[in-house]
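Q: Here's a chain of 279 amino acids. Please give me its 3D structure as tokens.
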Amino acid sequence: MRKLLKILRYKRHIIDPKALLTLELVGGLILFYFIFADIALLIDSIRVMYIFGFAIIAGNHRLFAHNSWPCPTWLKRLILLVSTLSLHGPVLAWVAVHRQHHHMSDQEGDPHSPLHKSRLWVQFLSYTYPPDLRYSLDLYKDKWQRAMFDFYWVINIVFAVILFLINPVFVAVWLVATFLAQMQAFAVNALAHNTPWFLFPTKEKSTKDASRNVPILALINGGEGWHLNHHLKPWKWYFGEKWWQFDLTGVQIFITLLLTKPSYLLDLYHKRKNNVIAN
């Protein structure tokens, strides 16, 4: 354990918030250009955003952070790669921050609680929070996770070069898609805790933290807006608790397993029915 921590502390330089923030800014600027000058490329960016969104929501969040659904090994590695290319930072760091958020939800030490930081900071500057990698030591034992962590920038630079050689416009579409996926994910952190009244959160509240169910966010964030449900039962792969609480990502997970590994559906049912706790 101590050896792992020493290695991770040495490799903290891999997670460069300034580089990630710069790419976020560039993606945002290109987005404004697409909005006013090229709607076709904007539509292409949104399509790619949904691919990154699935990797982040179903992958980083529900699979890697909470281990809430069984996943074939080849698909897990593919999701890991796509998530790495989404420019959200290494999956190890993402998971560490998220698990710390659950451990200290809306208390001092919560990495992105709007009760302790401004909503603007949570929405746009979450990258600057240094992850406590002790929360993701279990993932570091996986050689594929280690590779994506150690060679994070190499992988993304090579990918950018390949896109540029095919067509320079593809680099712009990639950066806009990653920016949109980031804004989509960070909106849950900024708005699903201590939610403003004008977003019409449901009446349910938690005694543990300020998480809320926000139907509007659930619609645009693939079900992540059922955030109170998630904080009460973080092990669940489907966040809807009532019949009308539709969770698109949960449906996508079900269909993904139906098409790739139907035998895992029984385990999926077991996790949902028996409240199997992951992380």
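Q: Can you summarize the key feature?
A: Residues 92 and 136 are 6 Å apart (CA to CA).
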